[in-house]
Structure formats: structure tokens, C-alpha cells
Amino acid sequence: MSWNWRCILRLRDLVSRFLISDVNNGWTTSFWFDNWNPLGPLVKVFGRDGTRRLRIHLNASVADACNEHAWGMQIQTSCCICSTQPETRDHLMLSCPYTEVLWSESRRRFRDTVPVFTNWPDLVLWTSSSSNAAPSNLRMMVVQALFYNIWKQRNNMLHNQALVPPYGNIPGD
Ligand SMILES: [Zn+2]
């Protein structure tokens, strides 16, 4: 992963924690110069070079930095795994490219045809339905295992900037 991207992931976490604990000061606290996070003033951590590489203006407040990168609390943050889409439940659990690989691998292992889910109600309906080859409790178990893994990888990406490739997540045939 690139230097910028690793930094942004780390900073995004810091910024969102700060904004959750101290929303009002987000508008007056200097992103680069104030001591608002555990690393201390960020200009000392990243240097003048870092301020340019991260493309956050020297005069930016924490809230500005957050808006510039759509890191906000009201604003949807982007998906921790693919970073190309807003992180919604449906994106993360159904349509993220990473998730799609897990789904297609799981789908192959069912003796029944499993539809490609594009929305939550379809998934819920399928999970609560039953067939001889794919009883409801089996469907439920698979969905739970998938969600558990996706969430674990999402957090792994958020906190450690590491991701287990989707194939490494599925036991062999
Ligand atoms: Zn994604």
C-alpha cells in the first residue's frame, strides 16, 4: 500500500474519533498545528512534505480535513476495503468487490442455486427460506460466517491496514 494511503487510513480513524468526542472544536482546531490527537501536532509527525502529500491545506481545521476527504460523521466514509464506494451495509456485505469474491465462492459450494443479492430484503428472504439442498439454518450459518469474516477484514483494514485476500479466507473444496 502506498505511503499516502496508509496515512489517510490512520488519520481517518483519528479524525473520526476526535469528531465523535469533540464535534464543536472540529471547526476551530487546526488539523496540522493543534495538539488534538495522540500523535501530537501532525505537522511534526508528517513534516511539511507530508502536508503536501496528504493534500490537506495548512490552514485546514479538523472538520475541513474531514470534509475534504469525505471522512465526516454525517458524510458517508468510503469503504475500508475497496475505498471506491461509500461504506454502506449493502455495499460492504453484498457488493464490495472483496465481498463478491467471498459470495461467489460460497455460492459455488451450495447444491442449490443461490441468487446474486443486490439488496438486503432479497438476502433476508433467501436466508429465511428453505429447500432440501439448502435448509434455512445452513443458509443462516453461511451468511453469518460471511458477515463475520467481512467485518473482521474490514476492521483489520481500518486498524492494521492489512487485508487477507478473499481466497485465503475460504477453506478449500
Ligand atoms: Zn468496498
From TrEMBL:
All copies of domain Reverse transcriptase zinc-binding, residue ranges: 67-103
Name of the protein: Reverse transcriptase zinc-binding domain-containing protein
Organism: Brassica cretica (Mustard)
